[in-house]
Write a structure and sequence with these properties.
This protein has twelve helices and six strands. By secondary structure, it is mainly alpha-helical. β1 and β2 form a beta hairpin. The chain is globular. The two termini are about 40 Å apart. The N terminus and C terminus are likely disordered.
């Protein structure tokens, strides 16, 4: 992670925190690996094992992915980096109801957090990608997101001497920069974004003083058979990574988003979206797939307002069976929200590079992202 000179960057030979270097590759180390209970059974106990996950990348591949992630050179016009929509100071989301791409317009959905991507086998709100590599590829070439093309991306990176040297360090068996190596490096970095050391985790590992009395009460409600929150938001990831139809309405003035129906060509998944993780949920407002709720409490309360209460007129959705009417009190809703604050853990937030090989701004400052009715422009003008 150090800059050796003005002409050379040396990638780190050390694995990120929470990873151990084993024969030259980084292997994840976490207490949850000592548990043998399987995620997906019941509402999930505190000592539930993690699902299968991705690791085994080299330190150099992870570090190269970090530089790529923060470098606007990946976008069509050098105006956006991956970190523009997945900002470390916004819980690896962007704080917008719907993200803004190179066109200066909002896209149809919000930017999901990238924490704990290594454990997932479905990506994007509509679950259309099944590998980290396919997920990394998507935004690069979406005309409304980063707007690049494979051909132009290759020309830009291969024309940069610093990136040529970095790819040689990360992929010594390759003689040139390839698309697959770009996807691998971005996947390696994203797989290193681990958040498993919150106060909740300390509680789950046996230190019960880590949570307050109200947080414990909220946790008990969260995983009760009345609220049923943990049926879908299963610990320790606080997602089951499945698609669920919950009946949330589309934002006013936007076309109907059929969600996972398009991915799976299944009518029963119309309006269905992937269950998001609740890790660092207090950092990633607004909530839902299109930023429907500014406040976390409103998002929690949505599930208490009655099955199908927000389904648009004329829509016949097959709502998930866990969407019902738990009739929680205001106090119980508040306690759940209080508990969700115990899932905060940004201790392994990646280091933002002071500079990137392209020489462009690390997190671009010219592409202003405004909301609440303001016009979005590339020049920062309203």
């Amino acid at each position: 992670m150090s800059i050796a000179s003005a002409h050379a960057i040396t990638l780190s030979s050390n694995c990120p925190p929470s990873f151990e270097n084993v024969n030259g590759v980084c292997k994840l180390v976490t207490r949850y690996q000592f548990y043998d209970s399987v995620q997906g059974r019941g509402v999930g106990g505190t000592q539930t094992a993690l699902p299968k996950y991705r690791d085994g990348f080299t330190p150099q591949q992870i570090d190269l992915g970090r530089y790529l992630f923060f470098d606007p050179i990946l976008s069509k016009d050098n105006s956006l980096s991956c970190a523009s929509c997945h900002r470390p100071d916004k819980g690896l989301a962007d704080g917008l109801d719907r993200s803004v791409g190179v066109t200066g317009e909002k896209v149809s959905r919000s930017a999901p957090t990238l924490w704990n991507m290594a454990f997932l086998d479905k990506f994007f709100w509509d679950a259309r990608a099944t590998t980290l590599e396919r997920q990394a590829e998507g935004p690069l070439f979406d005309p409304k997101e980063m707007g690049n093309t494979p051909e132009k991306l290759m020309i830009k990176l291969n024309g940069n001497r610093k990136y040529q040297l970095l790819f040689q360090q990360a992929f010594p068996q390759s003689n040139e920069i390839t698309l697959n190596n770009i996807y691998t490096a971005l996947s390696a970095f994203q797989a290193s974004l681990i958040s498993l050391n919150s106060r909740y985790d300390q509680y789950a590992h046996g230190y019960h003083q880590a949570l307050t009395e109200d947080e414990i009460k909220g946790h008990n409600i969260f995983r009760s058979f009345v609220a049923r929150c943990s049926e879908c938001h299963q610990p320790p990831l606080f997602t089951n990574n499945q698609v669920a139809v919950i009946g949330v309405a589309d934002p006013e003035g936007t076309p109907r988003d059929i969600g996972a129906q398009k991915t799976f060509k299944a009518e029963k998944l119309r309006g269905g979206f992937k269950v998001p993780t609740l890790r660092n949920i207090t950092k990633t407002a607004p909530y839902m797939h299109a930023g429907h709720f500014e406040k976390l409490r409103d998002s929690v309360e949505f599930y208490n307002k009655g099955r199908g209460h927000a389904v648009p007129e004329g829509e016949n959705l097959q709502l998930h069976w866990h969407i019902w009417e738990p009739n929680l009190t205001d106090e119980e809703i508040d306690l759940i929200v209080t508990f969700l604050g115990a899932l905060e853990d940004e201790s392994l937030t990646p280091q933002t590079p002071m500079s990137v090989p392209s020489g462009l701004p690390v997190i671009d400052s010219n592409f202003q992202q405004q909301r609440n009715g303001f016009k979005i422009t590339k020049n920062g003008e309203e």
